[in-house]
Amino acid sequence: MPRIAGNEQLRDRSGRELFSLHDINRLEPAEKEAIYRRLLTPRLAALLESAGGGAVNIVAPRGLRLVRMEARLSAGDRDPLFFLELCDTHHRQMELAFCQICDPAAQRFEVDRDSEGRNNVFATHGRNPGEELRAMEAGLFPHQVRHGLRMFGEFLPLLERLTDSLGMELIVAEPLSYDNAIRYEKYGFDYVVGKKLMLEIDAGFAPGGELFRRLDGSTPFRRPGMERTVRGRSWAIHDGILGEPWDEVRIYKTIGVHAGVNTFPRREG
Q1: Could you say which of 35, 142, 229, 258 would form a disulfide bridge with 269 (CB–CB 3.0 to 4.6 Å)?
Q2: What are the beta bridge partners of residue 67?
Q3: What percent of the chain is predicted at pLDDT more than 70?
């Protein structure tokens, strides 16, 4: 049964209850698209409307447990305004695989390409240090190609309502970077795996800690003082300061519950 007050079990037009993305994806295209469009925040919808409706592409194959949504102000835009990937697990959890909401009018940084211009798959296949430095100095976080629109806090309640209406109790995710993990904490997520690592990182960046000592200016991403902010720590970790890849961090949110986790309580920004 739904946990959010006023929310109801999702049903199709015939009244049949729906319990998964797999169930939604069996519906006729217009019906399932109408359900998935509920994940567009009012501000996103208004931006699209101001562009004459924009271009929204929803990939939700029949027989599969996933959906991909891309929304652009214009079909020819290089980057989507909104990009989302969801799947549901066999344990009846909603997996937030990827979510990006960016300002298509903002300056673009080629951090998603290596120095030769090839797709670097989130910097796992090479980096572009020059572009990363420009992005960092412009106030972006690792992996951001443009400034965001600060809409995740508006999107998450919509995802919670959809998840709840399918009778699911948990949203799970895998943060792409340190700053993603901290951001998810702000919105009420807790850790399945990785909380010990996050606490070790906080201790390591404290004065006298090993990570604090490694902020020696040896690269632009390891400047003294970067330990004080989420952005600074995240760029240093992206630069390899941990001595091992950022990996094996899994988080979850119980519908309607804020976990109250804060693994960086003394941050300055």
Answers
A1: 229
A2: 86
A3: 100
